[in-house]
Amino acid sequence: MIELRYEKAVDPASAMQLHGGRGTARYLGGGTNLVDLMREEIEQPGLVVDVTGLSGDIRETDGGGLLIGAGVKNTALAEHRAVRARYPLLSRAILSGASGQIRNMATVGGNILQRTRCYYFYDDAARCNKRSPESGCDAIDGFNRIHAVLGTSPACVATHPSDMCVALVALDAVVHLQGASGARAIPLTDLHRLPDGHPEIETVLEPGELITAIEIPNLPFAARSTYRKVRDRASYAFALVSVAAALDVEHGIVRDARIGLGGVATKPWRARAAERAVVGKAATEANFRAAAEAELENASPLSGNGFKIELAKRTIVHTLGELA
Fold this sequence. Notes:
Helix content is 28%, strand content 20%. By secondary structure, it is of the alpha+beta class. Strands 4-5-8-6-7 form a 5-stranded antiparallel β-sheet. A 4-stranded antiparallel β-sheet has the order 9-10-11-12, sandwiched between helices. 47% of the residues are buried.
């Protein structure tokens, strides 16, 4: 049994006070990832601060976007009327992830901060730099079919598992944080770090800093959007490749585009090269293929996952073609 202390926060200030920035403290949302990690003894916190009662609202911002509390359950977000109407790619991404029971428990903040599902990360007999810094990475020369081809380093090739985050990075979402230094807001694209030489440091969060909300800006053409997930089985499986996309097309020309990729990168991946390649061009399969080629140009396959590069290109083309 893991000996720990449990405290329930009543507001963000009390949550941060209880946490205190201690390395042995963890915030607990729905527990759908943290409890798994504790069960596998990957996480062994001495203090768990329950934040499930905080930030549970979804409201419209003055600019016409949405402000989503970090404690909002995934199911509630996916079913929200404004999300379904104005950001369908987000609703579809959430419904593509996990089971109904997990979505009913998992929170938005916890989903964003979930850790990788790499086999070697969960196997304490394997070398894993995320779990034990500077120990090595057995995935690089091991069974790496599910691993990343973008944003990798010699220290880590693990993918970020979230479906929701792929949609959020495509939507220019902003993360609102509260910490010892006060409140700040950063783009979600900047929250997760590339592994480089320190894959154990996964985000730019300061010790004890708490996610309080996610803001999605007003993006009218996001009503024409979708999420496509390619996986080994139809339910409860992580993406081999996923594409979140919104497309603004007028008279056959792409005026604007937002594209996010999942299952292929070490963080939720904003496909900016593909966006630049497609904007201003005719909405044709050939141009969509050129955009996909531009995005995957610098992909680095391993022995078992090279198929992801072509699969990602085809999924981008199919998804953009569907929207066009």
